[in-house]
Specification:
The chain is an all-beta fold and 121 residues long. It has strands at residues 3-7, 10-13, 18-25, 33-39, 46-51, 57-59, 67-72, 77-82, 91-98, 110-111, 115-120. 0% of the residues lie in helices and 50% in strands.
Length: 121
């Protein structure tokens, strides 16, 4: 069964960095648009970054200049490098694969189970 599995989350102090990974199994990511979403308690998931099949990227204003999305197709893995982390970046982060850079999490064909990121001040 195809699935996405995130890793790399955890606690970090403000100003620090983390790199999230999203590995796919039974699924070739190279043909999909890939995105990272995050969800804070009591809120809907919001898209923070997306990368097209050709490598074009887009970011939400809140993370632009601090986060970098990338993909390694031979490794079938998606990444999110997060630098200059702030307490308001605290959330569960999800990766997703779909046929476009949708803004809505539920529109993606495959979605991971999430990785918690907690940024302390």
């Amino acid at each position: 069964q195809a699935q996405l599995v995130e890793s790399g989350g955890g606690p970090v102090q403000a100003g620090g960095s983390l790199r999230l990974s999203c590995e796919a199994s039974e699924l070739s990511l190279s043909t999909y648009f890939l995105a990272w979403f995050r969800q804070a308690p009591g809120k809907e998931p919001s898209r923070v970054a997306c990368i097209t099949t050709s490598g074009s990227t887009s970011y939400s204003d809140s993370v632009k200049g601090r986060f970098t999305i990338s993909r390694d197709n031979p490794k079938n893995t998606l990444y999110l490098q997060m630098d200059s982390l702030r307490p308001d970046d605290t959330a569960t982060y999800y990766c997703a694969a779909g046929r476009s850079c949708w803004w809505t999490f539920d529109r993606y064909d495959y979605r991971g189970q999430g990785s918690q990121v907690t940024v302390s001040s």
